[in-house]
C-alpha cells in the first residue's frame, strides 16, 4: 500500500523522521505534541510499515470509545480504505477488524484483556498509549504489564507514549526513554478571568458567561462543565435565551450519533455551542472552536478504602487540564478562553491531575495482577504505585467474592476475570448461573453498569428499574437510557446464550443477587426503624422516610454515596432474612471499648459487622489488648488519634511529594492508609495505652516522621 505520511500537512509531520529513528534504535519512546498536531492519526501510519515491525501489528490505546472509532475512521480515510481493512478498532461489545488489519485502535479495558490472552504479545510489534496524560487506571495497568512483558519476554516490543501534556522530566526518568517533541500549530489564546463561580449555581452562571462571550467574538464555542446534569441545565437555559445558535451536549453516555453531531461542523452553517465534560479536553477534535468557556470543575470517582465505597465528587481541575481546555480555542485562529475563577485561584491550583490509580477501586487491578501470576502488585514498576490501603481493600473484596485464596487466583477467580465487567458483577452473574437466575442477573448487571433510567423521585427500589426495562423490551418502547441498558443486557444474554425474560420478577431474588455482588452492603434496619441501616461493613446509610423500602428490615444495597457518618442510599432491593442463612457466621470477638478502654469478649452470630445475637464471655486476657486497640483504630482512628493541624499539614506535604516525585519512594501517609495499616507501624506505641484519652498523648508527628529515609528528611529540611 502506497502512503506517504510526509505528504499530509499536519504539524506533527516535522517529527516523523525523529520518531522513526528513535523507534529503530530504542524500544521505548515518549511523544509530546499539543492537541490537533495529528499525532493520533499520522504517527501510527508513519510507523506501521517500518522494517523493524516485520509485519507485526500495532495496538493503539485510546481512553474513549468515540475517539477510538473516530481515529480509526480518519486513518482509514487517509489510506483510502474502509474501517476494518488495514485499520480497525475494538471497543466494548463492538469491533471492526479483519485478517488484513495492521493497526488496531483499542479502548482501555480491551487492551488489558489482549495482554492477558497472550503475556508475550506475540505478533504485536508496537503498543501506543495515546492521551496518556489522562492517567486512567486502565492505562497505568496496561503500561505496567507491557513493560513487564518487554523486560521479561519481549525486549523487541516497542512502547510509545503519546500525550499533549506530560510531566516530561518525571516520565523520561521513570521510562528511561528519549522524547520526540512537536510544537504543533497553536495560535495565541487570550485568557479572561471572570471571578470565582458558585459551584451550586454553575449552570446558570456558565450560561450567562456564554451569552456574553458569543457577542464579543465570532466562531463556535466550547463550554466545559463537570457532568451531564450541569450540561442539561445549562442547555435548557441557552435554548431559551440564545437564538440562532445550535446547542450540542457532549458527554460519555450520549448516544454515538449525537456525539458525532457535536464534534462535526453544523450542516446549516449556524454557529455552534458545545456543552462538554472533560471528554473534549484532548481526545476529540471539534471543528470551528474559537471561544472556550471553562467552569473550572470536573467530576471524578473517589474510592474510600475505609468504607469500601466510591463517591462521585465535583472538584477543581488542575493547571494542566485548564491549559488543555484553553488551548482548544487556538487551534484554527487566535481565540479567547473565559475562566470562571480568579487569578488567585489559578495560582493555587495543582499542577497536574491526580492519576486515577490513586483514587479508584483497585479490585480489577488486583485480579488482573493475580491472573498474570503476581501476588503483590508492588512487584511491578509503576509510574505511580497504587496506595497500600486501597490494595488491601481490593484483596479483601476479592477474597469475599472467592476470587482469591491466600492472595492467589482461584478457579472461580479465573472465571470472573474472563467476563468483560467488574469482578463484583462477574461474581454475581456466575452465582446466578449456578442458581438458575441468569435472565434476572443479566438485566440487573446492565442496570448496575449504566445510568439510572428513572428519576430520583421514583424511589430507591431497583426492581422498578428491572420492571421498566422489561416493559421496554416487551412493548418495544421508547427511551434512550433504557435502550442503552437493553444493549448491555442483550450482550450479556448473548455471552451466556440465554433468552430474555419479560415476566414479573421476585424482588427477593433481586436482593439475593445484589448480596452476591455487594456482600458488604447487606443492610439491617437500626433500632427504631427510622429509615437508617447498618451495613455489613460497619458503616451506616439512610433512605428517605417516604420511600417504600425505608421500613424494610433487610436491604441489599446496590448504590449509595459514601459520606461521613451516614451514607445516602440510591438503589436497593428488599432481602428475605431466610436467604441470608448461608452468610451467618459464629465468631468469638474481642473488642476495645472506645469510651472507657475496657476489653470485652463475646460469642456473636454475625453477618459481617451486623450482630444478630451476642453472648458475653469472661473478660479476655490483656495480651489481646494491642490487637483490639488496633482493630478499633481501623474504624475510628481519625477521631481517636491526634491528627492535629500540624500533622495534617505534614501529611499534605508528603502526599504532594509522593505525587510529584514518584521515583523517590515517598510513603503513602494518607489517613485511610495509616489507619488500615496501623498494626504494622503503631504497635510499639500501644503497649501503655489503657484509656482512649491516652492516645492523644502520642506524638503522632514524631512517629510518622520515622516513615522517611534520611535523604527524604534532608529533602524536607
Helix content: 25-40%
The third-level CATH topology of the largest domain is: Rossmann fold
The CATH class assignment of the largest domain is Alpha Beta
Derived from helix and strand composition plus strand pairing, the structural class reads alpha/beta
Describe this structure in words.
The protein is globular. It is of the alpha/beta class. The longest helix is centred in the C-terminal third of the chain and has 17 residues, at 480-496. The strands form six sheets. The chain has an eight-stranded mixed β-sheet with strand order 4-3-5-2-6-7-1-8, with helices on both faces. A six-stranded parallel β-sheet has the order 9-16-13-10-12-11, with helices on both faces. A five-stranded mixed barrel has the order 19-20-21-23-22. It contains 25 helices and 26 strands. Helix 9 links the parallel strand 11 and strand 12 (271-276).
